Task: structure prediction
Amino acid sequence: MLNNSLSFSEKVFAEDITKKPTRDGFGTGTVAAGKADERVVVLSADLKESTRAEWFEKEFPKRFIEVGVAEQNMATLAAGMAAAGKIPFITSYAAFSPGRNYEQIRTTIALNNVPVKVMGMHAGVSVGPDGATHQMLEDVGMMRMMPNMVVLVPADAEEAHKAVVAAATYDGPVYIRFGRSTTPVFTTSATPFTIGKALTLWESEKPQVALIAAGPLAYEALLAAKQLAAEGIGSIVLNLGTVKPLDEETVLAAATKAGKVIVIEEHQAAGGAGGAVAELLAQKVPMPMRFAALHNTFGQSGDPQELLAHYGLTAAGIISLAHSFI
Amino acid sequence: MPLSDIETTALSEKARAIRMTVIEMLAEAGSGHTAGPLGMADIFATLYFRTLVHDSTNPDWEGRDRLLLSNGHITPVRYAAMAHAGYFPVEECLTLRKFGSRLQGHPERTKLPGLETTSGPLGSGVSQAAGIALALAMDGKKNHVYCLMSDGELQEGNTWEGLMFAGKHHLPNLTAVIDRNNIQIDGTTEEVMPLEPLADKFRAFNWHVIEVNGNDIPHVVSAFDEAKTITEKPTMIIAHTTPGKGVPEIENDYRWHGKAPSKEEAKRFLAALAT
Result:
């Protein structure tokens, strides 16, 4: 059953549910964070329209810094600005930041432990026609391995807004992953968000599988749970808004009840949210797992929906994987 | 104001003490870089004992100038200079590179008060310095930012991204110093990857450029003083230094870039420095 305590959108299962890209939540979130704290600054690497950094620029032109096509410089400049008391958000496509500037983030932000917020846009295959070069599929793994780094993967534009606001007040480095395509906004401003807490979106009385999702695919997991319930198959759906630090208590409780786990993410099966959950379960309650993710392959050009379907990342793909697993 | 003879002698003695500590700490550590720290001792003595606005008893003081070391591998000279300036006991220098020490092989801000950044991987210092300079300027603060860099790290792309940004923003509160000693691990810079004409490159990036003998303390002092008078752009001081300066048997020998003296060699080096 849907966990109605979470104040979902009234249209949660409606055909005409509102759709927005999670990057819109970055745009509104930084404006809110900027109003709350004048130390917040936003850096852009020549992608301000598509990252939504220009929404902040319009409100706070003097606190918006354009660095040009130079992601390594953006990360290191931000490290310096943070050392001098600012709260910098650095923005680009995830393929370039943290893709290109990994070492700068590692040394000057994470090891240096300054509060720079790394905003990775256009992550996952749902970038679509741009193809594999721009479809970042390793970022959660890269950033999750880094000591001091918090990793957030919001499920919709509402949660993305809250994640950005929370990141601004968190005193340390944070990575947030965003998508390009419009995806259902199934939560509301009243839905809780806390760094380090997972949300139980759905819970059947006798769950046979836990569907643990990170990012907008949490909505696909929810659709899958509804369909599975209609077939008489119970499930639990978790939304991992925070991949690191992992909400171990909620993940362990769901996994223990269900006995089988599928992790769902627009990321390589290796190293991402799936890896985080597997590391926990292997130590505490080893159990069979499956991964709805990309398996040691890059993406390709295509329509976002077509690509998600191809890689088994829609409700239908999740249902099919569940059938073969239960 | 030009340096008096008494002031010059005093700074030279500080530089000599820093060099001797560098040799002692490297010999004790058994690894680390020797040539660069010896070559930069005069500049560190000038910074910590004349140019920098700082308070060794209050390393986090808001009013301090910021000194960044981009080429973190020459950190023994910074540690030695900081110790002689009163940041921590000189004896602690002998813990360099040892388990549990605050004096990590490459400097870590979170380990030792008085460090502004964490560095070692090359090419990221001038960008961080530009970030600090911009943030200070945004807040209307007058602190000056100094960034020490190696010549070898000019081969890193990140360096030029940072130089371009600082030029765009005309940051007059930023002064960078290139340790132009012409050596790097695999040979001389001009063999490995030529850097010249260096001054022209910085001018083209909209920096004010000063060339100086980095081992001539009165000239180093004048260069830092001149940099403070430039109000429309950042300043780059190209400091021509002699790697291994003060120990004639290793001066200008690139093979001493990345190795430490043995205990026996250290005795000879210290004797040479004492004369």
